[in-house]
Amino acid sequence: MLSSEPLKKNSNVNRLLAGLTRRDRDQVLAVCTRVSLTSGMILAEPGQPMAQVYFPIDCTICLTTPTEDGTQLGVSLIGHEGMLGSTLTTGIASLQVQASVQEGGDAWRISRNKFLLLLEALPLLRRRVSSYLHLTLDYLIRKSACCQFHLLEARLAYWLLMVHDRVDEDAFELTHKMLADLLGVRRVGITLAARALQSRGLISYRRGTITILDRDGVIAAACTCYGVTETSYERLLG
User: Fold this and answer.
1) pLDDT in tens, 123-161
2) How far apart are CA 189 and CA 191, in angstroms?
3) What CATH code is assigned to 152-221?
4) Which pTM was predicted?
5) Looking at the domain 15-147, which fold is it?
6) Rg for the chain (alpha carbons), in Å?
7) CA 102 from chain center: how many Å?
8) Per-residue H/E/C for 21-55
9) Does residue 125 contact residue 28 with C-beta atoms inside 8 Å?
């Protein structure tokens, strides 16, 4: 059964790195730099080779793709459970999405070339990164069906849980515009969905800050997609 408690971060490494042996982890961190990322920073552009790989510690990175009306549609969210740059295990150095910082914080950063050398030298690191890439692809498949068949209120609850799992606080900054862009809907739809969750005492929303008041209630309100990838993560990488 999925835990009602959000996954908490390690103060120095993210969960993907935490699953390495101490020797392997120390070898990775020896060539990493801890950097502070601010909200809105662009880390990768569509079609451009990534020069750096990021392992979030207490920040979140949002992957988005542009739409015809100029907005950005949310594709995926990366936090302390994962990394930006997992496609390098397949030899692909560029993404077809934009990667930007959603929630500011720290991350471990390593150059692409050094990371590729580590993948060759550390089989366990390659296996864990490959497993994470597999989970990401599985999530994207489920998300396409989610957007087609699930109600907006349930999808909003799902996204809020994804954010909550990747931050260390019950309150986080998300404006209606950001949520509308991420979910690919109009702002009025987000307003109505957020109001419905708030009226049930599940969340509070004020001046661009959303606070989770009843996590169990938000899980109940979310679509059935929530928990599937999370459970698979625990099985493969937990």
Assistant:
1) 999 999 999 999 988 888 877 777 777 889 999 998 899
2) 5
3) 1.10.10.10
4) 0.85
5) Jelly Rolls (2.60.120)
6) 17
7) 9
8) CHHHHHHHHCCCEEEEECCCCEEECCCCECCEEEE
9) yes
